[in-house]
Amino acid sequence: MKKKIFILFVLSVVILSSVGVFFLLWHSITINLFDKNQHLIEVRKQKILGNDFEITLSKDPIGYSFLYFEDDNTSRTFKGSFKNNSTIKAYFDYQRLEMPIISLYTEEDEEILSNEDYTKTSVNVLNCPEENVLNNVKAGIRLRGNSTKGAPKHPYRLKFDKKENLLG
Q1: What is the rounded distance in angstroms from the CA atom of residue 158 to the CA atom of residue 119?
Q2: CA-to-CA distance for 164 and 139, rounded, in angstroms?
Q3: Residue 101 class from Cβ within 10 Å (0-12 exposed, 13-18 middle, 19+ buried)?
Q4: pLDDT higher for 72 or 82?
Q5: Can you spell out the DSSP letters for 99-166?
Q6: Mean pLDDT throughout 93-98?
Q7: How many C-beta atoms surround the C-beta of residue 111 within 10 A?
């Protein structure tokens, strides 16, 4: 009887330790996607098993095309080894589309939460006639409306610090 209990105990320790080791091998990698001006576009998280990994970016953010990874690798695949809190940087450029691109960047990626107070932002207008291009023009942005501000797509009010001609 003691022999059976001992064998069961040893088996349960082996099973638990192997499961524990299995869970210790999983790591989380953060992939920060930036435009070529160092503005954050998107953050992606990915789980990896083991210390050595290979990550392939198969899908670009809408309106962007892949340029390179932080190590100047222009291939869409990044190979690396896990370090504490591993973060990878990937850089993208705007795609040439048939319509203007308006990009807004709040200071320190601050969220726009108020429909009364303006949040400081910089405005870029690209992919349009040269006379309408704006680069890092200072403005304020806030939510609009009362009932619609809770909708999935928020309406915004944009107010430039100086008079600007937005798209003619």
Answers
A1: 10
A2: 10
A3: middle
A4: 72
A5: S-EEEEEEGGG-----SSSPEEEEEEEESS-GGG-EEEEEEEEEE--SSGGGSSS--EEEEESS---T
A6: 76
A7: 7
